[in-house]
What does this fold into?
Amino acid sequence: MSERCTTPVTRADIEGGLRALGLQAGDVVEAHSSLSRFGWVEGGAATVVDALMRVVGEEGTIVMSAYPVSKPLPLSDAERAAGLHAKVRIYGPEYDGPTGMGVIADEFRSRPGTVLGTGLHRVAAWGRERERMRKGYAELLAADGWALLLGVDI
It folds into this structure.
């Protein structure tokens, strides 16, 4: 049994960690994240988004997945036997509620100045290059942007 964290992670802690990784003002970064992997974050998902925005600054750009899909749904025995590992519900293009992308991505998507792309594999983008980056991940690659994994893998 693991001990429960009693010391909160603060915005300053997250900012320091991001800077230690080499992230700085003006960078273009795609972030994938899991709030629960941080432990207890003072202020929750909003604190993580605030830290990213403060480190990258408005002269930089942040991109996060904003797929209109549900959190993973339970699998039946038949689905597991057929080799399925996960399933989700796909929502319509106008869906604006909680998604399977996680609370940090959902918080980011709701921020003023954040724009939303289109389609099933849409992204949300904020910062100087937001209009370009809302077109999708190909733009991030063309800009030689960072991929930042915070408590998740791909």
